[in-house]
Specification:
The structure is a single chain. The protein is mainly β. It has a single domain, classed as Lipocalin. Helices cover 14% and strands 49% of the residues. The strands form two sheets. Strands 1, 6, 7, 8, 9, 10, 11, 12 and 13 form a nine-stranded mixed β-sheet that branches. Strands 2-3-4-5 form a four-stranded antiparallel β-sheet, with no helix packed on it. A hairpin with a 2-residue loop joins β8 and β9. The chain is globular, with a radius of gyration of 17 Å.
């Protein structure tokens, strides 16, 4: 492998995740202030144990269950370490974002369920539609990327960005700069 290919190999995964941490993994995603870590517990060979389990661990304390997932999940921390966004790639044609608070990690909010349908054409929502936490603008504002392709003829790809305000629950179309 030449040096340029190797550098591309290292750079591409970081840009795809927008700076988030991908699970399942043996590693952990630490909050910016170092007080919290999200870790993943993968199933053993036990037939009764399904999916991977994300856990929130306090640096000097206990561990809380956050969410089970089957395929893959990305974690992206807010700059103030109070929120984190989980991009759950739960199906081959769908992904959702859940915004969690460290104060109440089990009460995450689904971005897809709260997303105003009028902001995206219906054929895009029905197709291969992936909601992904892209980056935090500040402690309350999260950029959500919605991309994919329609399943109806003529098939077309799409990509949109929205800013989700965690405090108000409102969405705003983002014009890329």
């Amino acid at each position: 492998m030449n040096p340029w290919s190797f550098m591309a190999f290292l750079i591409v995964p970081m840009s795809v995740l927008g700076g988030g941490f991908q699970f399942p993994s043996a590693g952990s995603s630490e909050s910016p202030d170092g007080k919290w870590r999200v870790i993943c517990k993968s199933p053993t060979n036990d037939v009764n144990q399904a999916g991977h389990l994300l856990l929130l661990k306090r640096s000097h304390g206990g561990t809380l269950n956050i969410r089970r997932f089957d395929r893959s999940c990305d974690v992206l921390w807010s700059p103030d370490s109070f929120h984190f966004a989980l991009s759950d790639w739960w199906a081959s044609d769908k992904a959702d974002v859940f915004v969690c608070s460290v104060a109440k990690p089990q009460s995450s909010r689904s971005v897809t369920k709260n997303f105003p349908g009028y902001l995206i054409p219906a054929d895009e929502l029905r197709g291969h539609c992936y909601f992904e936490a892209h980056k935090w603008l500040n402690r309350h504002l999260l950029v959500i990327k919605v991309s994919g392709h329609t399943d109806e003829v003529p098939v077309r790809g799409f990509e949109h960005e929205y800013v989700f305000d965690c405090a108000s629950g409102k969405f705003e179309k983002r014009v890329p700069k």
